[in-house]
Fold this protein.
Amino acid sequence: MPLILGIETSCDETAAAVVEDGRSVRSSIVATQHDLHEAYGGVVPEIASRAHLENLQPAITAALDEAGLTLQQLDAIAVGNRPGLIGSLLIGVSAAQSLAWSLDKPLIAIDHLQAHLYAVNFEFRISNFEFQDFPALGLVISGGHTSLYRMTSFTQLEPLGRTIDDAVGEAYDKAAVILGAGYPGGPALDRLAQQGDASNVEPLPRSMLEADSLDFSYSGLKTALLYRVRGHPIGRGKEATFQRSAEELSDTQRADLAAAFQGAAIGVLFDKLRRALQRYDDIRAILIGGGVCANSHLRKLAASFDLPVHLPPQQYCVDNAAMIAGMAYEFYQRRKFAALNVSAVATTGACGQDGRAI
Ligand code: KG4
Ligand code: ZN
């Protein structure tokens, strides 16, 4: 069965993994950079690229060791080449190109967002099981993206909607700063919200946009939370001051507001999924991928949905390389390999195996 090495460096996780036959994860190494970015309250691209350069080679060695394999035993090298921070992507792409060239193995270039959705396959433990519940709705919810697709396979995705401003994960990260919940923001806010009760505070707004829109918007929710925590600003622009600081709220008030934020941020995702189901009556399943699907509230709501909702196991929600190596099997089977000079691309969208937009 084909053994594929996956490499992932699109943002602030340096990851390498070996996956057999697209399904069995033989190893999955993720080196996070959270401590490097914490002081800045967000990912600093230049620092991320430098850390990838230091961490990638050890991650690849660890992935091979854990899988009990040598480089020569691999059948292909896969890399997430789009979308992401360009400097970060370039580190992974260069490493994958060098390995493929020196080992004379095929190179496979993978779209990071498609790979997030492919990660639901790791939910199925049966090695020869093939997920076939298409057409499906695919929702990618991460720090950089909130995108909804109609999927007829893991590689054929029609975009239906996306965020017009902040991504849901980004909104989580900013909300965590507003509430002083800690870093990284998403998991910290999730933990705080679990201690709170949303019914103790007035609900925060859910932005549905126009009646038929499948796009998302999170900037209004973020601003509403800011004003709820600190009061309406006095003055405008740089001169503006707030009526109070977050420290003036009690721990209970902060937790209740976190719960209200969580209810609105996650609730609107499910509202939009329901809207998409009204538009398409042939949908057989919903697939959700990306860092935010590690969220406790989302996982609870997903279990009560009318349709089967598939989520990756917890460790494959946030960025990882197993999803890259797994997705690559789809292309390996069809002998769809990338050129050795494949580009790194900052944006998402249709893209050939040469890495250029099509
Ligand atoms: O997919 P991912 O690892 O990276 C991107 O491709 O962006 O997603 C990271 C995002 C971050 O914004 C993080 O705050 C969010 O996922 N996240 C969460 C949770 N765990 C991670 N958001 C809400 N609740 C969580 N438990
Ligand atoms: Zn991601």
Remarks:
- The domain at 3-129+315-333 is CATH 3.30.420.40 (Nucleotidyltransferase; domain 5).
